């Protein structure tokens, strides 16, 4: 029986890098963003059909996949459109993650990377424990600016649209503070891996 840990964190916190480090240690990984992208890159999938009905033909590109720039602009300017999109996608994402979990039954624990655990409590039903990757806001802003080319104001706007760090901390069972180097993060992940392995190995 595999115990599932929900890995979350705000933009620039380093949660995806943290997930990758767990993966290098042989831990099963499920990424909600990858599930979402697969669903919306599969022409004629049920969620894409529902998106087309709600947002029109322009919601899909010429290949039948979701027109991400158009949808991103639409939901950015219309909170109700954002809620409608989430109402379409989230049940499909939830169901697919629940199905993927069944592929990993012989591991002590696995990681499900879900950025919106604080914003969307329903996804907490998929995990038994929450691990937060946290970093100071200025550190996060610098990371995102370096990797994406966005301005400081643009990054701050993204952060403002996400859950507050205090909300993430309120649901976290464990916290990794990721303000240091990659080596620091590797060492912290390894220690956390040892803790989870002891906690969830069959002998316990």
From TrEMBL:
Reactions listed under catalytic activity: 3'-dephospho-CoA + ATP = ADP + CoA + H(+)
Metabolic or biological pathway: Cofactor biosynthesis; coenzyme A biosynthesis; CoA from (R)-pantothenate: step 5/5
Keyword Nucleotide-binding: yes
PANTHER family: BIFUNCTIONAL COENZYME A SYNTHASE-RELATED, DEPHOSPHO-COA KINASE-RELATED
Predominant location category: cytoplasm
Binding site for ATP: 12-17
Species for this entry: Kingella pumchi
Known role: Catalyzes the phosphorylation of the 3'-hydroxyl group of dephosphocoenzyme A to form coenzyme A.
Designated name of the protein: Dephospho-CoA kinase
One Gene Ontology term of the molecular function aspect: dephospho-CoA kinase activity
UniProt keyword list: ATP-binding, Coenzyme A biosynthesis, Cytoplasm, Kinase, Nucleotide-binding, Transferase
Protein family membership: Belongs to the CoaE family.
Localisation: Cytoplasm
The protein's Enzyme Commission number: 2.7.1.24
Highest taxon of the lineage: Bacteria
Taxonomy of the source species: Bacteria, Pseudomonadati, Pseudomonadota, Betaproteobacteria, Neisseriales
Pfam families: CoaE
């Amino acid at each position: 029986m595999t115990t599932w840990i929900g890995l979350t964190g705000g933009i620039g916190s380093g949660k995806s890098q943290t997930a990758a480090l767990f993966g290098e240690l042989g831990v099963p990984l499920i990424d909600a963003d990858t599930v979402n992208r697969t669903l919306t890159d599969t022409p004629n999938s049920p969620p894409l059909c529902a998106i087309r009905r709600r947002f029109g033909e322009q919601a899909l590109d010429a290949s039948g996949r979701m027109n991400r720039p158009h949808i991103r602009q639409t939901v950015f300017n219309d909170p109700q459109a954002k809620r409608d999109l989430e109402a379409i996608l989230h049940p499909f994402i939830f169901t697919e993650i629940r199905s993927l979990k069944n592929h990993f039954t012989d591991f002590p624990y696995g990681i499900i990377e879900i950025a919106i655990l604080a914003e969307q409590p329903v996804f907490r039903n998929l995990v038994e424990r929450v691990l937060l990757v946290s970093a100071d806001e200025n550190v996060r802003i610098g990371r995102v600016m370096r990797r994406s080319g966005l301005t400081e104001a643009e990054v701050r706007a993204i952060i403002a649209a996400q859950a507050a760090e205090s909300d993430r901390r309120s649901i976290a069972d464990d916290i990794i503070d990721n303000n240091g180097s990659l080596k620091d993060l590797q060492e912290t992940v390894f220690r956390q891996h040892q803790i989870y392995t002891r906690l969830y190995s069959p002998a316990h």
